[in-house]
Records
---
Amino acid sequence: MTEQHEHAEHANRFERGTDGPKVILAGVDGSESSLRAAAYAGGLARRQNALLAVVYVQPVLAAGAALGAPVAETTDEIAEGLIAHIREATERVKGIFEVRWEFHTFRGDAYNGLVTAADELKADAVVVGASEQAGHRIVGSVAVRLVKAGRWPVTVVP
């Protein structure tokens, strides 16, 4: 493979043959930074006339890891709360700003769930909030791992 061919192939990975993104994925988990990321992604989607795909990844814990807490019910409640929050936000700006959006729930760890979502939804861009956990500065946050994957443009919102 020639160097020029390799460069063209790499450059075209992000190009789907359209002007601008058609699907912008926003990863949300209920944290303030993820909600700011969803708002930012909503503005991008509105300006680009793209679909905003809001994704919540429900964590899956090993049996007994939750010490008897109903994890599935809790994560379902979080998802329902996120949907309600997004609906309220879109109702407030209805008539002023129109954004096409969908809400999706995936299961697994945050990184793999967002990768699966981005692949299945054919995302052109991924927007996530900056990690609010101190340990991620050492181990690496989901956002850093998404950037390192190099499969989509990734925007990290503080």
---
Amino acid sequence: MRQLLDVFATAFGEPENYRERQPSDAYLRAFLERSDAVALAAVVEEAVVGGLVAYVLTKFEQERFEVYIYDLAVAAEFRRRGIATALIEDLRRIAREIGAYVIYVQADRGDDAATALYESLGKCAEVLHFDIGV
């Protein structure tokens, strides 16, 4: 999990969010044991080169689930090898097993590689995203 945090820090250019102030081992262990969280890692020669973290959302309007891909990244030197697609396909299998009806993900404007990947796997819905401070 710590290796995956490093991949995210580098890929997103956000070391302050993924390297500084990392949670304790106990916190990460508890996170990984949650039934509403999914963490997948792509490993090459015992090194994490990519991965994703997703959340399973229990819906209220029907007895069903949605899966939200929160973070997905592959180290630059391993991109364009199908790793991200394979991670999403593995998540699709997990989503089917738990009875989810959809997986969704957001991409930032200008992130053409991510947008192209997601468009190849699903349909785009234009939405606005708001961060509401607490």
---
Amino acid sequence: MSSDSAGDVAHTALDQAYGRFIAGDRDGALRLAISVLEDASFQVGAALLTVRVLAKEHRGIVAAEVAGRLVDAFVRRGDLASAVVAARAIEDCGEKAQAHFAAIAKAFGKGSARVSDVSQAPPPLPASPGVSRALAKLKGEALGDRAEVALAQLLAQDDPVAADTLLPKLPLVGALAPAVLERMLTALTVRDFAAECDVLRQGDEGREAFIVVRGALRALRQGDDGSETTLALLGPGAIFGEMALVSDSPRAARINAIEEVTLLVAARDVLEQIAKSEPVLGAELASFCRGRMIGNLLRHSAILRAVAPSERADLMGRFETRTFAAGERLVEAGTEAEGLFLIASGTVRVSSEDADGDTIVLAHLGPGDVVGEISLVLRRPATADVTAEHATIALELKREQFHAAIKEHPTLLGELYELATKREEETRSVVAQEALDASDFVIV
């Protein structure tokens, strides 16, 4: 359970157990997980944590058998991420899990008869039983024995969720054939983070993408003035950092754990290696990331919000994806732009020259911002250079497409004209102020 701020998070016994586990207190984690297992039937979350603890304690015989059962249980509940964690736990117990990864891929992959337009089954109601005195006294081998008894009781029960339950259609996953999806799933690793830890830092180089298994996080972006804005709250099933799989752009936001979280991690170099023999994976990843990129722009770009929601798909279809290396120019001062650019990933520097030929940095722009509009809308040469500061992905609306677009979407021209005139005035003001500041140092 979570809320917008870390201070308001209500911790269940299982939340506390994960906190102990991440902190290295395995006995404390096990006592809490056992208390949940013994209090209510078929608590799959508590069972998974118990399995993970026992695997680290090298007590994998019962744990591996239960982990196999949990793979099926999470699949029935439409929880692919937790099913993958359970399959990884089998390996941590020293057993092979390939058949389980194959079962997950078959259930969720392309062509599965079980996949439909349904929502994932909600998790069981949180249980917060207290730890009994007898359980609190147990440790070491005795505590491990108690955990195995609790897991054996779960094994003896029938799963209340039917084996043929329909499963939700998941992005990317549903586009991959089971054999390809299986290879991707086996490449994922499990990582845990304590509450208030930064999973990602804004500006850092990215080489990994993440899927939230449990817990909650927030995405925050720092502005030029140092203030941070909350962009989104992320919960189980959310994907973030995916642009690192197709771009060298720095992280556009800080991702902070509100509470203890478990994540699946996809490393870019590993997926690239798989894509060499499975080209469809690379193609689907690129398509998925572009779709996510466009979705993000639709939420945050002022010019796209100026167009009616029903018209945005047509407008986005007119843009072409462009990539720019660090130092490469998108727009050159003094020339007429061939189109305008909507920054999708990365950052650009807008700069101009004063009368003495000195470079003045006017702005640093990132995802959602537009460049090139002054030249295109006001029909005059560009007033500034726009240069990629890092590897940058932008969507380009070429001049011909621009004229066609404003005929179809006249509100777009109004938004761009207002932006162009405002920026031109700001550029003049900054250059004039630089000239005034320089005159303070001139002695005559």
---
Amino acid sequence: MANTKSAIKRDKIRRIRTLRNKSKRSELKTCIRRYYEALAANSDNKEELLKQAIKKLDKAASKNIIHKNKASRKKSQLMKALNAVQAAK
């Protein structure tokens, strides 16, 4: 347990940031899941959902919520999935 005032404050800030990051990661995963669902249903708004997902990935990477290489890898996977669906038409 933290003893000093500064250590107590750092612990409080850590807990707040952990909750915020967890929320943002969850939001990101939901956005990606919605994109894949739209892709499976061949929905009209799949390109819009892709843009949204890429924007959220970039934002999360810039805020160090996820690693920049993970964001890049995910964007590549999302684009690859879209290209596969379009090629199958």
